[in-house]
Design goal:
The complex is a heterodimer of chains A (110) and B (113).
Chain A lengths: L2 E5 L2 E5 L4 E8 L5 E7 L4 E7 L6 E3 L2 E6 L4 E6 L8 E8 L5 E3 L3 E6 L1
Parallel strand pairs in A: 2-11
Antiparallel strand pairs in A: 1-3, 3-8, 4-5, 4-9, 6-7, 7-8, 9-10, 9-11
Chain B lengths: L4 E3 L2 E4 L5 E6 L6 E7 L5 E8 L2 E4 L8 E4 L6 E5 L8 E8 L7 E2 L3 E5 L1
Parallel strand pairs in B: 2-11
Antiparallel strand pairs in B: 1-3, 3-8, 4-5, 4-9, 5-6, 7-8, 9-10, 9-11
The chains are: A mainly beta (110), B mainly beta (113).
């Protein structure tokens, strides 16, 4: 069965800390891995990763994929309270059939 | 350029009624996907449509659920004879090409009472 597993499920840190969110996967078909941020509404696209070892970066967020070990990490440096959200990892099996992990609920305390 | 628009945002139905959820993709996008998020669970793929065609409906329940994306107008996810277990958030996403990033709408939260 195709599965995407995220860890930790929940994380509470203080503002300014650096966090690393993990995503491992076992799927029959792999086209790309995507990260989304979900607050109270729509999942917001963060990154799409297709190649191993190439870091994608956007401000304080960065992500990298390891296709040999079948995992990805999402790093957030100098966290702010606005980073509090559920972070979703998904694998695109082709034709945008996304298999999602359960999400990591990140809480940033002031 | 408006994003993916879903309506209604909230929908309350009594058991046995029909629910119709609408999704207008981003301008220029012709690929539409529906996902369901049950309480405390991740998003689950339901169906992938292009204009007038269902491409992949492997995640759709076999009964009571149907989806369409007509030549004109929004995509519709239809749930007949709703039951309490249908209560969930239903998200629509769209993309311009089949394997580029998908952008999500704000979802329709369906509550069956």
């Amino acid at each position: 069965e195709d599965k995407v597993v995220q860890s930790p499920l929940s994380l509470v840190v203080h503002e300014g800390d650096t966090v690393t969110l993990n995503c491992s996967y076992e799927v029959t078909n792999f086209r790309s891995l995507l990260w989304y941020k979900q607050e109270k509404k729509a999942p917001t696209f963060l990154f799409m990763l297709t190649s191993s070892g190439i870091e994608k970066k956007s401000g304080r967020l960065s992500s990298i994929l390891d296709k040999k070990e079948l995992f990805s990490i999402l790093n957030i440096t100098a966290t702010q309270t606005g980073d509090s959200a559920i972070y979703l990892c998904a694998v695109n099996q082709g034709a945008q059939k996304l298999v999602f992990g359960q999400g990591t609920r990140l809480t940033i305390n002031p | 350029n408006a994003g993916v628009m879903q309506n209604p945002r909230h929908l309350v139905r009594r058991r046995g009624q029909e629910a119709r959820l609408r999704c207008s993709p981003m301008k220029g996008h012709s690929h539409v996907y529906w996902y369901r998020q049950l309480p405390e669970e991740g998003l689950k793929f339901m169906v992938y449509l292009q204009k007038e065609n269902i491409i992949d409906e492997s995640g759709m329940p076999k009964e009571r659920f149907s989806a369409e994306f007509p030549k004109e107008g929004p995509s519709i996810l239809r749930i007949q004879q709703v039951v309490r277990g249908d209560s969930a958030a239903y998200f629509c996403a769209s993309s311009g090409q089949v394997n580029t990033e998908a952008f999500f709408g704000q979802g329709t939260r369906l509550t069956v009472v």
